[in-house]
Structures are given as C-alpha cells and as structure tokens.
Design a protein that fits this description.
Length: about 325
C-alpha cells in the first residue's frame, strides 16, 4: 500500500522569482497600481487607504536594508526546502495549488480539479527587449530554453478522481491541456524552484481559491484534505507519497496576525480552527491559504518539523506577501 511519508508548504509569490533590487525598489512603483486590495477584515480597499492607516514606523519597515534582509531569508528558506524535498526520496508528490484564469476561465471554473494526463507541460519563456522587470519576473516560473513536459502519476490521479467522486466530491477531471495552455504558476513555480533534476511524478490538485462565486469554504477544504489522506493510504501500490501546498500566505496586504495564527494551528493540528476561518478573510492572494488548509489536513498524520516565515512587506502601505515555507517530519 502507498504511504504518506512527507509534506511541504511553500509560497509561490512573484517576490520569489525577483531580484534583490526589485524587492528594494521595484514594488514601490508597482503596488500603488494594484486593484486587488482587501483590509484585514476582508473589505475592499485601496492603496491610498492602506497608506493612511499604516503605522508611523511603516517607512522604517521597508528600507532597502530591511528588504535585502528579507530577500536573503526567503532565498535561504527555499534552498533548505529544496533539500528537504530531495531527501524525502518520494515516488510521487501531490501539489495543491490554485488556478488564476490559466487553465480555466470564469466561463467554466470548477471549485476542484485533478489533472491526470501522462505529463503536464510548462512553456518556454517568451520575452521582449522592452518588457518591464515585473513582466520578466512573471516569466521566471517558465522554462529558459524549451518547453518541458513533466511526469504525472496518471494512474493514481485517475484513481483519486474516481474515489473522491465516490465520496461525493465533485472533481473536475483533466487528461490534457489545450494547445496554447501550460501549467499554472502555482505548479510551474514548484517545478522550477524545487523539483529540477528529480524526475518526480506529480499529481496537480487544482483549487479555485481566487475567483468568486464558487470558492470552496475552509470547512470543505478540510474535508477534501482528510479524504486525500485516507485515499493515499488506501492506494494499492507500494509508493512513498508526499503532499505540497503551494501559495499564500496573506497577500496583497501582509497580515502577520492571520499568518502566525495559521502556523500555530498547523503546529497543534487544529483542524477546527482552520475550518472556522472566515472566508471573507481569504480574498485576493490570501485566498491561497485554502491550498494550505487542504495540504495541512492531508498531512495530519505527520508532525510539523520546520517552518520559516518572512513578513514580506514591500511598501509603506504594508502591502506585500506573508511568505511561508514548511516541512513535516519525513518518515523512513
């Protein structure tokens, strides 16, 4: 039988594919133009309103020196997580991530989907001489030289779809991509940053965290995570299986209280606390916390071993991303 032996979590923010100088200077030009801001209660707001309510020491929190320190902390955390994934010696990795009108559109946008093609494509980067640093950074989740077709554990993915449907989950099933499509950023980031040279089959579990009106509740995310754990352990093949949650934590306004509360709940395996999170708080980028809720519940049989959290402030309005990286204790 398959064994769930390892678990991981990682933010996939554009901050993690940028250069140090982009953190220190670039976002101060970009963030004031972002239309997707919500305050800590989940109410729509603007950059200007956030700037008005920022604490008096906000400017001191986003000096070039402070930003450089955070950049180094995030880079070190990703390097550590990459080594932990490699050391787990997995046969398959379920990656739980969101889709932001990459494979789906609002014309047809399922709450949950699982990809079960034999491979999944990541595209070659396309750039132009005059593109902005921000546009260039977005392409860094793609391939430098040519398209890459990453392996998928297709038979297990198909089995999970069938068994989840038997448990009354309505799972969209994907056995391939359209000609112009490639895997979304939640998955391509994981391949590029953590899985290079591993030849590790994945199972993409795709969640509509971002786009109303059919975002799953935290309670439903707990239910899906629990079902995935039970089904992984019931899969009739001798495999070492891992689960990785991709995305989050709070953004595009950093909410340290929310982020640290989530990390504390993960440590104590408090599924009820996570299930009771107010969906109103999970808007815009913070919606990706749903990916963590699913992954965390799937990993409930393991103990959280290692966490790094970087409060990724990048403007005096305290916009940015709560960057989180985690690993559960790996079983022999």
């Amino acid at each position: 039988m398959a064994r769930l032996v390892a678990g991981f979590g990682s933010s996939h923010s554009i901050m993690l594919v940028c250069q140090r100088e982009d953190w220190q200077h670039g976002f101060k030009q970009v963030d004031p133009k972002n239309p997707h801001y919500f305050d800590r209660l989940g109410n729509p707001t603007t950059y200007e309103e956030l700037l008005k309510i920022a604490p008096a020491d906000a400017e001191a929190m986003v000096t070039a020196g402070k930003m450089g320190e955070r950049y180094d902390q995030a880079e070190a955390a990703m390097d550590e997580l990459r080594e932990r994934i490699r050391a787990a010696k997995l046969d398959v990795l379920l990656v739980v991530g969101d889709d932001q009108t990459e494979l789906f559109r609002t014309t047809n946008n399922p709450a949950f989907a699982i990809y079960y093609g034999e491979t999944i494509r990541n595209a070659k980067r396309v750039s132009s001489p005059n593109e902005s640093w921000y546009a260039k950074a977005r392409t860094m989740r793609q391939e430098p030289d040519a398209d890459v077709h990453y392996p998928v554990k297709a038979d297990m993915a198909r089995w999970l779809i069938r068994e989840l449907c038997n448990r009354d989950f309505d799972i969209a099933a994907m056995d391939g991509l359209e000609r112009d499509q490639y895997e979304g950023h939640a998955f391509s980031f994981i391949h590029r940053r953590y899985l290079q040279d591993l030849d590790l089959p994945v199972i993409p579990v795709i969640v509509n965290t971002f786009d109303p009106p059919n975002q799953p509740t935290p309670r439903r995310c707990i239910q899906l995570g629990r079902a995935l754990r039970e089904l992984i352990e019931a899969y009739p093949e001798n495999l070492r299986v891992g689960v990785l949650a991709s995305g989050g934590l709070s953004h595009f306004v950093v909410d340290e209280e929310l982020d640290l509360g989530i990390i504390a709940a993960i440590r104590r395996k408090d599924s009820d606390w996570l299930a009771a999170l107010d969906p109103k708080q999970l808007q815009a980028g913070s919606s990706e916390i749903r990916n963590w809720i699913i992954g965390v519940e799937a990993l409930n049989s393991l103990d959280l071993e290692w966490v790094r959290y970087v409060a990724g402030y990048r403007t005096a309005a305290l916009t940015g991303t709560g960057l989180a990286f985690a690993a559960w204790h790996t079983l022999d």
